Request: fold
Amino acid sequence: MARTGRPPQDPTKRAHRILDAAAELILRWGYDKTTIDDVAKRAGVAKGTIYLHWKTRDELFAALLRRERVRLLEEIRASAPTTVGELFGGFVGAALRRPLLRAVVVGDPEVLGKLAHMKRHSTTRLELGGAFDAYIGRLIERGAVREEPGDHMTVLTAIVYGFVFLPEIQPEEARLPAERVAELVTGTVERAMGTGRALPEQDRRAVERATLDLLDAMEEVARRKLAASLGSEPKECAL
Reply:
C-alpha cells in the first residue's frame, strides 16, 4: 500500500522560506535580537530543520547576504548598463533600495548589531579581481576609459563609498533618493574615468558587451556561492 501524508518538501524552497523569515526579522529587530527559534517560528518549521541547512546563525546570515547579492546583480543586469558609470551607478542604486544590503554597506549597528564592523567589507565587496582588470582593459582599448591614473578600482571605490556614506552625515530632509544618488555616481564615474569622446558604433557596442560580460561573470560566481550556502554544492568558507 502506498504511503499517504504530506509530499516531501523541496529543500531549496524550504531554505528560501527560512531566509525570507530571517530577513524580515533581522530588519525588524536587528541581528542580535533575532534567534534561530524566532526564525523557525516565523518560517513555520522546526528549529532542527534550520540546522539541516546551516549549523550556526552566522552561516544562515551569510546565506541571506549571498542571496541578496544575487538579487542585486539580477536587478542591475535587467537594467542593461552600457558603461562603467552606469554599471557602478546601478550597484549603488540597487544596494540603497535593498534595506538589508544598505545596512551592511554602511555598517548599520541597529540592524547588524555585533556584526556591524566585521561584515561591512567582508560581505559587500565586489568580487571582481582579474575580471575587473580585463574589463577596464577592454574599455581602454575601445577609447571609453582613460588609461591614467591607472588605479581605476581605487577611484571607483572612493566615488561609490563617498556617495553611499553621504546620506549618513546629512540631515534627514537633505537626503536624496536612491535613484538620484545612482545618477550622481554614474555621472561622477564617467567624468573621472571617461575620455569624453563620442565612440563609433562598433566601439560603443563593444563597451556595452564588455559591461554585460562582467556582470554575467559576477552573477555566475554569486549564484555558485548561494547554491553552496543552500546545500546544492559543497560549502565554501569565503563569503
Notes: Confidence is low (pLDDT under 50) at residues 119-125, 233-239. The chain is about 65% helix and 0% strand. Residues 9-55 form a domain with the Arc Repressor Mutant, subunit A fold (CATH 1.10.10.60).
